[in-house]
Amino acid sequence: MSISQRPIGHRVAIIGGGFGGLYAARHLGKDPRIDLTLVDRRNHHLFQPLLYQVATGALAPGEIAQPLRSIVHRNANTSVILGAATGLDPERREVQLSDGGPIAYDTLVVATGAKHSYFGHDDWARFAPGLKSIDDATEMRRRILIAFEAAEREHVAERRHEWMTFVVVGGGPTGVELAGALGEIARDTLRRDFRSINSPDARILLVEALDRVLPNYPEGRSRSARRQLERLGVTVRTGTRVTNIAEHEVTVEPAAPGDVVDAGGTTRIPTRTVLWAAGVQASSFAKAVAAATGAETDRAGRIKVGPDLTIPGHPEIFVIGDAAVQPWKADRPVPGVAQGGIQGGKYVSKAIRTRLDGGTPAPFRFQDRGDVAVIGRLSGVTNIGWLGPFGRTGGFIAWLLWLGIHITYLIGFANRLVVLTRWAWTFVTHGRGSRLITGQPLLPDIEEPEPPA
Amino acid sequence: MSISQRPIGHRVAIIGGGFGGLYAARHLGKDPRIDLTLVDRRNHHLFQPLLYQVATGALAPGEIAQPLRSIVHRNANTSVILGAATGLDPERREVQLSDGGPIAYDTLVVATGAKHSYFGHDDWARFAPGLKSIDDATEMRRRILIAFEAAEREHVAERRHEWMTFVVVGGGPTGVELAGALGEIARDTLRRDFRSINSPDARILLVEALDRVLPNYPEGRSRSARRQLERLGVTVRTGTRVTNIAEHEVTVEPAAPGDVVDAGGTTRIPTRTVLWAAGVQASSFAKAVAAATGAETDRAGRIKVGPDLTIPGHPEIFVIGDAAVQPWKADRPVPGVAQGGIQGGKYVSKAIRTRLDGGTPAPFRFQDRGDVAVIGRLSGVTNIGWLGPFGRTGGFIAWLLWLGIHITYLIGFANRLVVLTRWAWTFVTHGRGSRLITGQPLLPDIEEPEPPA
Questions:
Q1: In Å, how far is B423's CA from the nearest CA of chain A?
Q2: Closest partner CB to A434 (pick from B62, B152, B194)
Q3: What homologous superfamily is domain B10-41+83-113+283-356 in, according to CATH?
Q4: Closest residue, chain B, to A78 (C-alpha)
Q5: Whether CATH 3.50.50.60 fits A10-113+283-356
Q6: Is there a catalytic annotation at residue B177?
Q7: In A, which residues are within 8 Å of B63 by CB distance?
Q8: If I label A397, which of A9, B113, B172, B417 is the partner at 20 to 30 A Cα–Cα?
Q9: Is-contact A282 A323, C-beta < 8 A?
Q10: Which DSSP symbol is given to B394?
């Protein structure tokens, strides 16, 4: 019952519309020999590197997301399907969807990215939301803003202190950027908004198990990031493991000076707001692909691919971005950053066309463009190897570089204009325009003080 | 345990941070004799006249909302409380909150606005969401976008037709603007986005029980609006009552040529997307206030107030905006538009200060600034009485006037810049930047065709 009657070309199915899938789709969809189907559970491409800005009220969700259909609508060979890929039949070359399908392919591109991992403690998810989707970001924003609102109304000092304590778990780029933004919100944005509390008194802890933040950066950059965080009032606790997360507390070890250690020797940090930026694992579909093809995976469930990013024994299945262990250096695969997905997508797009020409694609080579993280207002760190010593900046220059790079890669020209407008305004006024509490608007019940025993 | 130790002034409590409450709060909060508490269930003021643009993907939620705290943060006499007012004790002069409180007042301002009314058919709400909050708007947006996605994937022609049929109930300004925006989306924005469906084929019905759309406008304006809607492909059905809304259909009477009338004589319009823009009623708190004070209400539960907008017998309780029947002409109260709330709020702010000066406030006089509605791209109707015949425009001039007025009243300078940027971009590209599906991202189960009997 298909409406289109044109002859069918080489059928490429791309699962996932993140950086990897999108950069693959943009070029493949222009090749007349190809029939492309792009499948995603969401109707939009999300610019994940700025997601923490939605979670902290600096940007609105629509400003960092763009409908997939509108991105590829000029590509007549491309169909976009809103659906969740759940299984793979590599013999019949079909992808199963949860609600319809299947989708037949000649070449499959798995670009389904990563989801949170709580390292086997899935019960922590309820108390410590992570940051992967727009809905995650608005939920995080809701919790952060509700905490200040509840503290304003709370009469019991102990509980007010719990509301005013924020724990960010994980000292990678997301954790560092979240903690920095929290510091800025507490010390700057909300400073004059409350009457009973003093928002700069908020206690913000960044907990990292390794011995430094930004462990993928050189040590000097980690030290610089730590200093900048501390200047924003963030308490950085490296070498500290989270051992449990429950409704009103996080337990860590070892204890630090000032911690409350209970009789059993457990260090409890009373808090109502825990943000998870620690672990990721491959998506469920990547796991299904590994199971169906017998592909090897790493501990996070990411598929180990060959030099051409295909599954060994399955040259028709590419796996790219965070779903894959993309080869790079002998001791280190491509890190889980946007550039990994972008370059994987571009490579696959070229490799498939090279094959249709009868050639053999050259192996994938990751070009490290460098890393940049922003820490609060007008400040950040960069680590851009190919710039030599000039690539290791901090402070304002890092912030400027960060701004330029993010605006360049943001999809959609209107979004670029709007985001620049917002940032310019934030820069001048110290405000944050998008501090909405949506979803459940009300406070959790504020308990009455218990009667003295 | 209050932290503030300064002497307590005249305590004013404002319930509701919409147009009425906000315009009352802005000036009262600057008077050193007054202690002001502003209570709202949401943490933001919402610019409701542009809510339909969020529902149709033209603007992002954060662009038409502004945190209440940041609007009044310069007013040292103002406390903002996030909470839901549930009851009133007029003897003790206290407002009860659902989760804490009570809030004591010397003067109370009830500005809690309106909510949807399904005219006694609350079961319709599930199938026909209304448009009052950001969450309503994102839900409406989700349903509209999902309908096109589902139609693209649906193989059964009958069901595809159901997904491609949109029914807007109610021909007031919200219904007209929603239907116009739907027409624009189908004919323009999405035109090139799909492969199996042709989005301009979407059937958009605007159903109104009265004999014309925009019944508050002069008849000529109603005719102009109808023509403009029809040009956008909207089928306008005036004089048509909705008798039932169920999961996959709306039933109406009387039938029109082309309708399918079943054996029992019922006209059923098969559709998966129904948008409610018909009835409103006073908020629950207004009803609680009426019950506690014995105030008279109209059929929609709005409180009948005296010439000074207070409840007869309760000079300390003002009711303004959509929660009240604000007096205007002999045969007609102030209509439920933004201007009613803004002018009510400004009046109350002045009246309270006049009383503190020992004076008696002059009666409230509503100044009709006129109405303006936009219908699709670059088109609309106005009815601005004080401009004489020049006030009755249509088409492009109406659209320009609409733009100027909305930008002027939008709260927050950053929002004005961002919204102008988006509109300029939409104007040039015919795009809509904020077409995100959030919340439940997936399609409802697409049923398999039933086996032939």
A1: 10
A2: B62
A3: FAD/NAD(P)-binding domain (3.50.50.60)
A4: B195
A5: yes
A6: yes
A7: 60, 62
A8: B417
A9: yes
A10: B
